[in-house]
# Entry
Amino acid sequence: QVQLQESGPGLVKSSETLSLTCTVSGVSITDYYWTWIRQPAGKGLEWIGIFTRGGPDYNPSLKSRVTMSIDTSNNQFSLKLDSVTAADAAVYYCARGARTVVTTNYYYDYYMDVWGNGTTVTVSS
Amino acid sequence: DILMTQSPDSLAVSLGETATINCKSSQTLLHSSFNKNYLAWYQLKPGQPPRLLISWASVRESGVPERFSGSGSVTDFTLTVSSLQTEDVAVYYCQQYFVTPCTFGQGTKLEI
# Structure
């Protein structure tokens, strides 16, 4: 059973860096793509980016401040968001990108089939 | 970016009846070579991880009840929830994954 668990500080000061980790169990992190999504209170979902075999693909709206990385030894992937403001306060989700197997070929898709429970990040002034 | 617009923003449906949620994209989500629509539907409930219901506009995820169905193509899509149950109360989102950045609709709140 695949499980994802987000962790990190629930409170970040304005202008500082938000750092979150997603711990993956039940599957090797090298076998899939991995995504971060966020949801500000009372608002909809925002795609932050995805980490693929070719490297990360970030939402242009956040690209200048975002870094995603993979830690294969600990089966984790992480998110760093620099220079946070109140607008970055949200529930942050990590999720697995779907994968389709056709005969012996793998096709990686950008919808998310397994999600973490989410972690709430508050930004203080 | 592709703009995804859902309608309605909220709706109330009686138990056992059918709920219909619409999702419209600002650009085609149909890949002509593969003949696939790059559209997914998710269910969000408080305190639970989001749940994938439908991919490729109409492919129900394993374990999702048959009362959930997806339809549509190109730019207009629909999620239908038949025989509404109390556990279907949630917010539903559509997502396009045709191009990055992936984008979501604003969500539709479904109530009894």
In short: The first strand of chain A starts at residue 3 and ends at 7. Chain A is about 0% helix and 60% strand. The radius of gyration of chain A is 14 Å. Chain A touches chain B through 25 residues (CB under 8 Å).
